[in-house]
Amino acid sequence: MEPKFNNPFVTEGNWYKGNLHTHTTNSDGSLSPVETVKQYKEAGYHFLSITDHCRLTKVEGNQGILLIPGQEMHCGTTEAKFNFHLVGLNLKEEISYAGDEIPIFRKKWWEVHPQEMIDAVKSQGGEIILAHPYWSALTTNDIFSCQGYIGTEVFNTSCLYGIDKGYSMHHWDDLLVRGRNVFGFANDDAHNSFNEHRQNDACGAWIMVKSKKLTVYDIMEAIKKGLFYASCGPEIKDVKISGGNIFVATSPVKSISFIAPNGHGEMFTALKREPLREVEYKIRGQERYIRIQCTDREGRMAWTNAIFFE
Known about the structure:
Order of helices and strands: EEHEEEEEEHEHEHHEEHEEEEEEEEE
Number of helices: 6
Protein name: Polymerase/histidinol phosphatase N-terminal domain-containing protein
InterPro entries: PHP_domain, Pol/His_phosphatase_N, Pol/histidinol_Pase-like
Strand content: 25-35%
CATH topology of the largest domain: TIM Barrel
Helix content: 10-25%
CATH class of the largest domain: Alpha Beta
Largest sheet: 11 strands, mixed
GO molecular function: 5'-3' DNA exonuclease activity; 5'-3' RNA exonuclease activity
Shape: globular
Structural class: alpha+beta
């Protein structure tokens, strides 16, 4: 079987760290746009998308970090009678809300089907990520009710620290097992919300993108090709596919898993005190796809995008 996988580890370019879901005082965040940009720059991020609710936030001037225009849109009604949240990236124009209505659709926002919103964003050259599907209580019917979104949040820092609903691997696998090769994103959804019982939700997740240049065009093109991995802790240092095997190298971790449909795949665990740093998995030939995830001793995880087999 031939693997179908844009492997960032064998692609020319540099690694750039970014977060694609962030809020400021222009919606329900605690820091101003300028303060938020400064926070992520000081934390070592190379790019950031400020995605305030229902509005497009712009930060003028050179802030020393690449800014990708973004917005979080609310729309539709889910099977459980909640709503969809969609992260729009590389927007040229704001999807404006006027009270309960979205003027371009001439509808109440909860009457706008997510497919309409996806089509509107893509018509202006943007892309959509399905936000926090576990937090949103999305069902399989919900996530298959629309298409054209580039990926889904597999991890969301704010949803984890707020209500312990940060991980959405099951939703991602529901899509992958049905042949929807969407990408997995780790985003903060930062509001800079914290108290004595809650960790701050900023600078806790990222994607590492392999790109030749740090420009909006180049980063977005790399993301659209899947040339990245997602993480909230571990580093994935290398992935090689050769001779019917997949070799993976990481920072020290507790486990490295090869996730595949049904009972296929394998989990490698450090049973002794010495952590895992590299493993090799033999492809059996029955896997429709394999995605790699690793977990460190603090429970933090990292994910590659899926490797499909034809």
